[in-house]
């Protein structure tokens, strides 16, 4: 996807960039890992700014110049004073990787400017790795910035946390997200359900709109993980229910025709392949009934929909237990 801007992180960027330029930025920085909400872009902007020799400050704010030798090295992906450490997929971040951080911090900068280290998915560090990182955080060399990125800072050792200046990524309000989507895809019809989905996954929602697709099967993830926030008004709820029905339909189609299914369905599919298809079909049918009910007057749409979602969740995840009973 082409580069997009995330208006909701601007105030945070202003805070970080002013501190960086003014020399008051902590050497241990914690940035919440929320790539959908722009955390990777924030990390990149900050690293470029810290490495740049001639930062620009004008009405658009502070940023790296993009032209100095440091900026060119960064763009080429070969800046010798930038180190990125992250775990291999599905693995913990081990002490060997973190030792590289310590060694890097002790070296003098190859370009005689700042050095920047990213430790990504720091919440997956082993205890030994965390203790090793702590040593570097306790005595960070003058010109070294350690940017620690984690989805759940609560999983870090308190001693590590206390050495970091923490920056959570702000959650955009619904009207900000709606305006953002409208600006980027002006001709699209944007439902309330999509906006509420986009509040958590703006990039996925944006891509779907651009591709002209309906809400993704991924929407079922929210249903099975119980993290659905229903819209407040009845019309919004009805649209939302429609989207889940659509997702069920697409998931059933993919499962029947291509035998593909969401990750969370693995256990269910492996134990009872036809049971999973049945669960999808049952949820679809009860969803159609619910939708018809919602069009009638005087019903508690919120309650009925929550009940249906709860039931779907049970069927999709736990149909195995139900069968065993
Ligand atoms: Zn520059």
Automatic annotation (TrEMBL):
Protein's organism: Aliidiomarina halalkaliphila
CC per GO annotation: DNA polymerase III complex
Enzyme superclass (EC): transferase
Keyword set includes Disulfide bond: no
One Pfam family matching this protein: DNA_pol3_delta2
Keywords, comma-separated and alphabetical: DNA-directed DNA polymerase, Nucleotidyltransferase, Transferase
InterPro entries assigned: DNA_Rep/Repair_Clamp_Loader, P-loop_NTPase
Biological process per Gene Ontology, one example term: DNA-templated DNA replication
Protein name per the record: DNA-directed DNA polymerase
Listed EC numbers: 2.7.7.7
GO molecular function, one term: DNA-directed DNA polymerase activity
Species lineage: Bacteria, Pseudomonadati, Pseudomonadota, Gammaproteobacteria, Alteromonadales
SUPFAM superfamilies xref list: P-loop containing nucleoside triphosphate hydrolases
Catalytic activity: DNA(n) + a 2'-deoxyribonucleoside 5'-triphosphate = DNA(n+1) + diphosphate
């Amino acid at each position: 996807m082409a580069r997009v801007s995330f208006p909701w992180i601007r105030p945070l960027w202003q805070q970080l960039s002013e501190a960086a330029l003014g020399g008051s930025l902590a050497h241990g920085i914690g940035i919440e890992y929320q790539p959908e909400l722009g955390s990777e872009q924030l990390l990149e902007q900050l690293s470029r700014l810290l490495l740049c020799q001639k930062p620009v400050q004008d009405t658009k704010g502070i940023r790296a110049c993009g032209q100095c030798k440091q900026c060119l090295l960064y763009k080429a992906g070969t800046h010798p004073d930038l180190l990125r450490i992250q775990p291999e997929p599905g693995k913990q971040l081990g002490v060997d990787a973190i030792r590289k951080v310590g060694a890097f911090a002790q070296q003098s900068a190859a370009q005689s400017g700042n050095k920047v280290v990213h430790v990504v998915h720091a919440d997956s560090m082993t205890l030994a790795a965390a203790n090793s990182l702590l040593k570097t955080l306790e005595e960070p060399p003058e010109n070294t910035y350690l940017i620690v990125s984690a989805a759940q800072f609560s999983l870090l050792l308190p001693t590590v946390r206390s050495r970091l200046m923490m920056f959570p990524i702000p959650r955009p309000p619904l009207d900000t997200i709606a305006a953002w989507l409208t600006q980027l895809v002006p001709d699209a019809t944007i439902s309330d359900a999509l906006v509420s989905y986009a509040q958590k996954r703006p990039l996925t929602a944006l891509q779907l709109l651009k591709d002209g697709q309906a809400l993704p099967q991924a929407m079922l993830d929210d249903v099975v993980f119980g993290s659905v926030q229903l819209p407040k008004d009845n019309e919004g709820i009805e649209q939302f229910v429609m989207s889940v029905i659509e997702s069920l339909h697409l998931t059933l189609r993919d499962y029947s025709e291509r035998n593909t299914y969401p990750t969370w369905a693995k256990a269910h599919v492996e134990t009872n392949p036809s049971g999973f298809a049945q669960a999808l079909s049952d949820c679809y049918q009860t969803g159609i009934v619910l939708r018809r009910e919602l069009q009638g007057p005087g019903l508690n749409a919120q309650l009925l929909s929550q009940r249906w979602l709860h039931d779907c969740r049970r069927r999709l995840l736990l149909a195995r237990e139900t069968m065993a009973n």
